[in-house]
Amino acid sequence: MHRLWRVKIMSCNRFRVLVVCLVAGFVAGAPLASPAASQADAGKASIQERLNRLREGLFSGTGRVNEAIKELKGILALDPGSAEGHLLLGIAYRSQGSPELMGEAIAELRQALALNSSFVPARFYLAHIYLDLGRAERAREELETALAQAPGNPQFLALLGESERQLKNPRRSLELNRQALQIDGAFAEARYYLGLALYDLGQRDEAINELERVVQSGPNAADAYLSLGTAYLEAGRFDKALEVLLQGTKIDPARSDIRIQMARAYRSKGLLAKAEEQLKLATPKGAAALPSSFSQYQQVEFDFYLEQGLVKLERGQLETAAAAFRKVLDIDPNHGPTNRYLAEVYLRQGLYARASEYAARAEKLGFPLPEDKRRLLQEKFRRKETGGHE
Asked: Taking the model in full, what pTM does it have?
């Protein structure tokens, strides 16, 4: 079964507004200054005004991130004890989408927590980054601490549910996201995670229903369209898959993973020229634009070469197909279907020793050649052994 591996944080307006509200709510709830501190408060008033402006710009998408980073560094030079300043700098680093800056983002959020351990927005955003990096265990730790400080928060419950799903606990994810939806039935992100958990549990039709509700509810999030389109593909509903995936490309034309799934849908319908068009738009370089972990980028690369190999195999372009399948196996040598596909390619090329090698690997991994091809390979290989050469 093709994995719905796309579990990056939904980049929808609801998520941006949520963090703004968390930050703003914390600042608004801060204790009033004493009269003796009024002069210091007056000195910090302009700094808070600048932070408010930067916060609004970062989460509305209208701020210039590089300029925001420069200004936040200046603010922290004046007021290194500003937990909100460190939080916003961490968010700004993360929004750059650069793996090199993820460490800087974590360091800033950790500094915010060192200044105020009850500053739950920092834990929430830190958990998001840990999920970006594929560190679901660390995300779970942060969210459990945040929930101890803010019990029943639906955003924390939903993200904890997604952490559990990534830790191979989909039933626990189901429970947590249903709790979140009982508190806020319109919370699209919780419903999205619920759909992913249902899919992992093999409840594909129920998963599709939940993902359809997410898409219909209106969040402008490419991930929801990608996951729903992939689920349609698994159900053999190729036209619906193409319809939904096309909507995803309108939201984010640069998403390689959506293009790959469109290529898969076209190939499944026998439209190989259209599949190749999508693959040309989905080169692995395009995946680098995604704010994802190296493992997620590697998954995009894996899917790209697998789909390319399948299209070229159907076209009879065996050399290109074999090269693509070898790249897949460079990433995951134990991928059973690809070992079988490569065996089939070598069989058609008359390279029977190589075909036998990969057929044996595929069978060991639970993906044997079809019986007719297995008999043909055995016959051809015996003939080569008794007097021929490849």
From this structure: 0.81
